[in-house]
Structure formats: structure tokens, C-alpha cells
Task: structure prediction
Amino acid sequence: MSESVLGCAEGYTAAIHWRGGARSFVAESTLVGLTACSWSRTLNDTSDARIVVAKGNASPDCCAALGQVEPWVHELTIYRDGELVWQGPVTKVTEHRDSVAVEAQDVYAWLDKLVNTSLIRYVDASGPDGRYRAPVTHIAWNILRLNLGDTLSQPHDYPAVMDYIVRRDPAEQVRFEKDGTHNKSIWNAYVGDIWRELAKRGLTWTAVGRSLLLRSRPTTSTVALARLELDHILGDVEVIKDGASAATYGWATTQQEQDIEDGLTVGTGRTGTPYGRLDTLVKVQGQETSAADLRQAAREAVAGRYPVPVTISVPDGSQLSPLAPVGVEGLVPGERVDVVTETFCTSVGQGFALTDVAAEWGDGGEKIGITLVPLADVDEAVVQ
Result:
């Protein structure tokens, strides 16, 4: 459990760096007049951030520098009480009569601008260039490594992300293949979309600062980061039973839209439940996918969805209390957080996975909200 508390930020500052996040373009001391700031962290997606600078409070040098900020050439860096909490490439700059707004996305955004040019064949016990059956985190890391080291990527690792990847490899090894009939064709898809495909095999990722954390989904065996009670949330809180997300049985298939003859399908989960039959289906890319691979994908598809999942959200206008027993550095999507509610009609006393963090700072001070979803345990009794 975390021994720190969230606290209340005394102030936020920001800077603009050159791509890579190391060389300053507009320093903190120059970028004055910050009137609003927001940043987020999210699981298996791209988070964003935004700052607004009042032109009337900015120096001529600051204003001139902001006018030269270029999307993808520069990066936005945000500091909370002097500690870096967010960094990523600038994607949009909007100037108004009295202000300049700079918007950015986290470093995962680079993967959605990168088309794969590497052979996707991770099926054997050993292979060249790191291509072998391995934990899903290794496969994701290696696909990115090979593409950022390609001759088209000049300089190699131009966004400077490889040195900041943190992997927590699970014990389970998976096969992953998408290489055409003759094991030579290249799967030309965005690397970001390939990682999303790997999410069906258990991959999770999140960006924290400049780092990309790769690991598997948290379960009841995962150590909890913190234990929250409703007193740790100021304002309203939403406890949601979401039937749209429920599933009693998961299916994974390699069937294609136009050709189903050679497809393989595997299912797992529960039958005869009080909910009746609530299926979920995931389509898996790849040739020569085994039944074991599909079963693992089916388990991931149904994980945390039976019984009907309960999610907890801190809506707009509410926030975590400064006394919440977790520091900002610990608010990392993918961590387990235990929650106890005793004053709601819906009794909750269980572990959750943190999926989203959203922070805002302005005239009203700082507000930090979170979203929690069920852990990724699987209740299965029948395997097709």
C-alpha cells in the first residue's frame, strides 16, 4: 500500500522541449502567464494535455517563442510543484487575441504515426532479431524497436522512447504472427494498432511522464496500490453497474469477413448463469493461431465482465481529496486500487483496476479525478 497522500498542488509550470524531451525550447522560467493546465493518464490509449498562456502576462520573448512552436517538432512538458508529471509531442497550437493554447498527446501518439515495416512472426522458441514466442510485453517492445531502427527512421529512435520503456514481463508466453502465406509478407499497419491487437492477448500499456510502462492486466493476486473510501472523494461519485460491458462467455476467432472456411474459434466462460447467455467475440489477427492462443484471447475478452462489472468514476465537478492515500506518482493506470463503500445502496468492497487519471488546474486550484474498473479475473467452467 502507498504511504503517501495526494496533497494539493501549490502550482503548475510548463516548458516546451525539442522532440525527445531533453533540449529546452521555451524554458519554465520563460513560459510565464500560465492560466490553465490539464493532463491525463490512460490505459491502452493515448492521453492528452493542454496549457493556456495569457499573452498579456507573457514576455515578448515568450510570445515570440510560442509563435514558433511546431507540432511533432516540439514537446509539451508539465510540472506539478516542480515534479514532471506529463510529457509528449505537441499536436496543435491555437492563438487567440489574448491567449495561446498548446495541446499535446503522450509519447504513444508516435506509434499511431508509425507504419510497421517489420516481419511479424513470433511463433518459434528462438528466432532472429528478437522474433520468437515470448511474453506479450516483449513482442510489443520488439516490434517498436525494429521499426524505430529501420532505415526509414532517421535518426534511429527519433522520438527517444526506447530508453524509457519499462517492461514487467508476465510468465506466460504467446505466439503472434501476421506474415502472409509464404511467411515473407509485411503487415503494413500502424504500430499503435498492432499494440491494440496485442491487447487482446493481455498487453496493457500506459504513459507516465516520458515512460511507457508495459505489463499484463491486474488481477486479485496483484498487490493493491491503495485503499480508498468515499471520504477520499470530494463531491459526487458514480458507482455504475454497466450491463453493456457484461459477458458470461468469451469467444476468440480467426475467421475473416470474406472467408470463414479456414477459421478457428475457441470459447470459454460460464453457462447457466442468472444472466442467461451474454457472449463477447474478439477477432484475432494472425496465421497458424493455435487453440491455446485463442483460448488465451477469449479469456482476456471475458475477463472482469462476469458478474456484471461495477465501475467507479469521479465525474466532472468532483475530485480526489488531498488526503487520499496515494501520491500523484502512484496514480498509474494499470495499478490495483481497493475501494470500500458503506453508505451507498450498492455495497462495494473489492479491488479495481485504475484506468484513467484526469487532472485540471486553474483559478479554482487543482482537481484530480480517476476511473476504476473491475480486475481482470476470469470465471470459467466451460471451454469450447
In short: The CA atoms of residues 20 and 160 lie 5 Å apart.
